[in-house]
Amino acid sequence: MHLSLTLTTAMAAFACIGQVASVPLEETLRSLTPKARNVLKRATPVAPYFVLYSDAYVSTEPTVSEISGFNVFALSFLLEYGAADQAQEWEELTAAQRSSILSEYDAAGISLIVSLFGSTETPTSSGYNPIDTANTMAAWVIEYGLQGVDIDYEDFAAFDAGTGAAEQWLGNFTTQLRTQLPQGQYILTHAPVAPWFSPDIWGGGGYLWVNSVVGDMIDWYNVQFYNQGTTEYTTCDGLLYSSSTLWPESALFQIADSGVPLDKLVIGKPATAAQASNGYVDPTLLASCVSSAYVSGWNGGVMVWEYPYAESSWIATVRGDTWPMPSTTATPTSTGTTTATPTPTGTGNCAGVAAWAADVVYTGGSEATYGCVYSCVF
After folding, report:
1. What is the pTM of this model?
2. 266-281, pLDDT tens digit by residue?
3. Architecture of domain 49-319
4. Is the pLDDT of residue 330 over 80?
5. Mean pLDDT, the chain, as a whole number?
6. Helices marked H in the chain — which ranges?
7. Tell me, which GO biological process terms does this entry list (predicted)?
8. In the chain, where are the structural domains located?
């Protein structure tokens, strides 16, 4: 997946190859209208995605340095009745505190979203109206300035019933959320357990049906490859290429073979053995699995449950040599010949242009912002 340029008419290109125009980010942002600034902040990131959930009690959101290496931070959870846990913590901050955190995260390329439902809610079995629930939750996201949602639907009874009610509920809920949180402006992800992608098991079609009906509305899947059996998804082969007969065809590449886009599949794991019933993999082994998957053509990324048990050091290990963490060492002043910073070749602003991310491969014509605006040309 490459940077989508849907709003390029809002900005003239700055020509560069590996260089940037010397326009300070603050100056650029001040030149934009409030609406343009809002769109800029809400641009959806591209793969690979490095997602960190936060549900355990902490008094405030982590600093950028504590979660460096992640590009999505998910507050958990927003429930049908309202905010709980870290979503409630966010709600109780002052507007100024929220604005400050969002600004810091934006500058670091970290999107702040909220996760919905979780293991304590059963939306279909409990009779939640998917349209009304979507409208209420979307309104909360907008009111509190977040950049999207993650649907952590865990109504196992509804799925196991095999009537299709669970899948239909998810389809209706996702569709309505997208009417309120437009694609490209807000992130919308799902966090299904891996077995729900197994074909020919679920009477309603499982997540393969969900993907076939509303997959185009979903930015990516934070797949839970854990809590599904003591030996499930605990080796690179079982995680990536060949799942067990208990949950057939639910390894990463098997899910892709069933029609789910490979770059939408994010490998989800617990931070420690204590964070899940089973399915834990040591970060060093997980890094090896990630490397193998990448060589085989996958670029989805990694999700982990949860902060503060996973921080920057955890994701640095898992990213390894596949997606090395950018150096934080200041570049020394050169005493040799330098290349002058190019002068912008056009005029305009950066409305609608996403923030630069170190783990994104930019192709010709792609535009991004990072302390300035740049456009790569080949």
Report:
1. 0.78
2. 999 999 999 999 999 9
3. Alpha-Beta Barrel (3.20)
4. no
5. 84
6. 25-30, 34-41, 85-92, 95-107, 130-143, 156-161, 165-180, 206-214, 236-240, 252-257, 283-295, 312-319
7. carbohydrate metabolic process
8. 1-44+342-378, 49-319
